[in-house]
Amino acid sequence: MLIETYGEKYQTATAAAVVAVPTDTALGSTGAEILEMVSCYAYDGMVFYRKGDLVNAAASFAYGYGWLDAGCMLGFLSGTNSAGPDTITENIPETLREHLSEKTERYQRMLTEASRSIVTLPDAETPMYPAAEKIQITTSTELARGNEILLKHDEINALMHFSYGYGWLDCGVRSGLFGITGDRHLFTI
């Protein structure tokens, strides 16, 4: 899939997403924050794309999709889930290769550290505990997929998985499912 096509798909999903809980509640405020993140990354991704920055465009779309999918899974948003990042088949220009390598390595490092910098807050006997587990499983799965893809020297698709997993984790932290035990700067709080 081309990055532009992925971005258009994400923008369509973003436009269809709505806050699924009463907006005048704490849950509604959280849902509104999640939807704002989803919308901002749809916009930012297209700005990057129009400027020719395919690397930041792809990362923005995948990260935002992580927020959208996590927000829907948690019940804060109503919309359609993506089932993970699509495979990008577009060739990244040589002029962006260094940028792609740097960003992919940085996101791999940051997601690894962020995954180690949280503690699950809901009690194991509550309904929110399995939701927190789902976010941790998705995050670790996307990190592992990104690492596998990176071994094949496919940096753009590795970055997509790192970014998508990071969106899930950030959404979980923002939703109050995790406490931060490490570097707070790794999270959107």
TrEMBL record:
InterPro entries linked: AF1782-like_sf, DUF357
Domain called DUF357: residue spans: 6-77, 106-178
Gene3D superfamilies membership: AF1782-like
Database matches in Pfam families: DUF357
Highest rank taxon of the organism: Archaea
Name of the protein in question: DUF357 domain-containing protein
